[in-house]
Amino acid sequence: MVDLSLRGIKKRFRTVDVLHGIDLEIKDKELVVFVGPSGCGKSTLLRLVAGLDPITDGEFWMAGTKMNDVAPSRRGIAMVFQSYALYPHMDVYENMTFGARLMGLDNAEVERRIAEAARMLRLDALLKRRPKELSGGQRQRVAIGRALVRKPELLLLDEPLSNLDAALRSEVRLEIAKLHRDIGGTTIYVTHDQVEAMTLADRIVVMNQGRVEQFGSPRELYETPANTFVATFIGSPQMSLLEMERDGDRIGIAGTGSVVPGRLPAADERQVIVGVRPDAVVITPGEDGEGLSARVVYTEYLGDNAFTYVRLANGQLISVRCTPDTEFAIDAPVRVGLLPNKAHFFSSATKQRLPA
Amino acid sequence: MFTKQLTGRRLWIAALIMPPLVFVCLFIVYPIISAFAYAFFEWSGLARGDFVWFENFHKVLFVEPFASRTVNAFSHNVFVFFALMVFQNGLGFVLAYFLWRELPGFRFHRIAVFLPVVLSTIVVGFLWRLFFHPLFGPVNAGLKALGLGFLTQPWLGQDTTALWSIVFANAWHMVGFPTLVFLAGMQRIPGEVLDAVRMETQSEWVKITKIVWPLVAPSATVVFTLLFVGAFNWFELPYIMVGLEGSPHGSTDVLGLYFYRTAFGNQSGAPPDFGAGSALAVLIFLFIAIVAGTLTIRMRRREIEL
Fold first, then answer.
1. Residues of B in Cβ contact (< 8 Å) with A73
2. Could you tell me if residue B56 is inside a domain?
3. Cα angle at A3 between A109 and A110, to 5 degrees?
4. Inter-chain CB proximity A85 and B193 less than 8 Å
5. Structural domain tally of chain B?
6. What is the mean pLDDT of residues B22-39?
7. What confidence tier does B61 reach under pLDDT thresholds 50, 70, 90?
């Protein structure tokens, strides 16, 4: 049983503040993904949890014990590194037994755990090989195996898929999801890839510039992003943000037209940022009619889907999901309409979500 | 067209290789081969006498008093090798580890440790001969100042401490070299591998013996082999600090000094004996070549690519 509590965690490297006070409560058996652009501090935060770097300020608690000054090897944590970090002079078997033996387990127990991990990760045939003789995917499995053999209370994974090619990546992603279901320990997973985050996580921590932008389930993040950063970071192609003006039940852009979005935010700000995902927009060909006037820039055909990019009269680009059989000539005039109740509203000043 | 280019390229390679090749042949290969040849002749002064087969070898290995001198000198070389292995390479590894862990002041010490290496052996030899001077030397003066006056010794003048003192001077001089080589080896170890160990143990001992040491194997091969060659070719430092006789009483005599005395004579009037000297030189060369070769091959097997 481990639940984690991060309270006001700060990290400073010399004079640079990297983390500005992180507060998180992570539940037992949860798979939490830290996601954010590179340099947002997600890997730094993971290293603080692991104990590899000291915490500058704030407290880290695991299952009711303060962990700030506990050595990494005493925290009951195992970590899978981005480069796998296998010991190059040991074969697969030795790589996996090294840590287990240091825990003081007897031989029979170590053998039992190795056999279990080898079976689960299909490593039986590789036990006598050195890391050099393994492919990227195999090394990855060994690294995970080495972590599992220690039966950690908390498993940390630092961008574990980033060194794999695209085909292998989705395969290993499924394996990790299955492993977590089977073993069920608390897991923290760091990635910069929002697809990995969405598919794996129970809950996602979106980070940006050393701060947590939002902490919630994939669905919450997608359906009710807390601010414009989360709104544009989650979802692909990303949400388009439009500076618009309210006028009664309509919102519009001067010289471009106006639309009726349905539900409007409760706050009565006139100037708002409207976020629209590609599937919240419809386009109809022609100069005239309801909606915002725009011109087609280009169309991406993806087989089961197509995305049309249009430029509004004020110069702003919007992506629109269409059925694959729609075809627009480049530069053709279109009208852009909104599906009812699909738009997100954010404050122009604070960039925070305006609740309906 | 293609052949022409190839010829041009070959010409270039030949032109670049020839000068050093000539140099090596003239000043290294030729002297070694001549020494081989000299060792099979009888010599009187600089005049070559009869071809005597293995008599010179037999003399330095089995005829008294030459044989016991050879054994005495060889045993000192062995001692020097092991003493330097501990005090020079061992200390070098430890120093490298501390420098690598970036303890406070590591920038200063990184340079300080290596500084003596750039001094000439002649300078170091004279420096330490002065330092060890029984009356005026800073070593004894320092001991007295610390209230350890009872420890003052004629360091280079008695057979119990003379060889140790030269070994100490050698270690002081050269410890920066193994330090630098080990440090370079340690810096090649990927940071995440070290993080991985830290996740599994907090014991520095386990970290050093199970991870760092095996991973700096290539550095160990280099410094061990070079130390072996250096220890059995040892000449300059004892020559400068205690003289050609390996004094006192042959307690610092090593193969280098003994070879030099035999081949070129010495102040006490022994005549030069080119034949016996060359035989010694050949034996030293073969010993070093065979052992160093085997050592390198065996230690290479321990190395793994990172």
1. 198-202
2. no
3. 10
4. yes
5. 2
6. 88
7. confident
Q: Find the radius of gyration of the CA atoms of chain B.
A: 24
Chain B residue numbers touching A85 (CB-CB < 8 A): 190, 192-193, 195-196
B182-191 b/e (C-beta count within 10 Å ≥ 16 → b): bbebbeebee
- Domain harbouring B146, CATH code: 1.10.3720.10
pLDDT tens-place string over residues B270-282: 777 788 888 888 8
Residue B53 belongs to some domain of the structure: no
Cβ–Cβ below 8 Å for A83 and B190: yes
Domain that holds residue B14: 2-38
Q: Is the pLDDT of residue B162 over 90?
A: no
The pLDDT value recorded for residue B4 is 56
Residues B11 and B143 in one domain: no
The residue type of B82 is: F
DSSP string covering A35-66: E-STTSSHHHHHHHHHTSS--SEEEEEETTEE
Query: Side chain identity at A150, as an amino acid letter?
Result: R
Bridge-based pairing state of the strands A154-158 and A186-191: parallel
Is residue B51 included in any domain, yes or no? no
**Confidence grade of residue B38 (pLDDT, cut at 50, 70, 90):** confident
Global ipTM: 0.84
Strands A281-285 and A250-253: unpaired
Q: How far is B211 from chain A (nearest CA, A)?
A: 8
- Our CA angle for B278, B279, B281, nearest 5°, is 60
What gap in Å lies between CA B217 and CA B220, rounded to an integer? Answer: 5
pLDDT in tens, B215-234: 998 899 899 999 999 999 99
What pLDDT, on the 0 to 100 scale, is given for residue B267? Answer: 66
Q: Are residues B249 and B137 in the same domain?
A: yes
Among candidates A78, A102, A130 on the partner chain, residue whose Cβ is nearest the Cβ of B201: A102
Both B104 and B237 in one domain: the answer is: yes
Residue B44 domain-assigned?
A: no
Distance of CA A337 to the CA centre of its chain: 30
Residue ranges in chain A whose pLDDT is less than 70: 1
pLDDT > 70? residue B306: no
Q: What is the mean pLDDT of residues B289-301?
A: 89
Token code pair at residue B180 = 């630098």
CB contact under 8 A, B195 and A52: yes
Q: E strands, B39-81, where?
A: 41-44, 47-51
Which of A128, A304, A338, A317 has its CA nearest to residue A240? A317
Question: How many residues are present in chain B?
Answer: 306
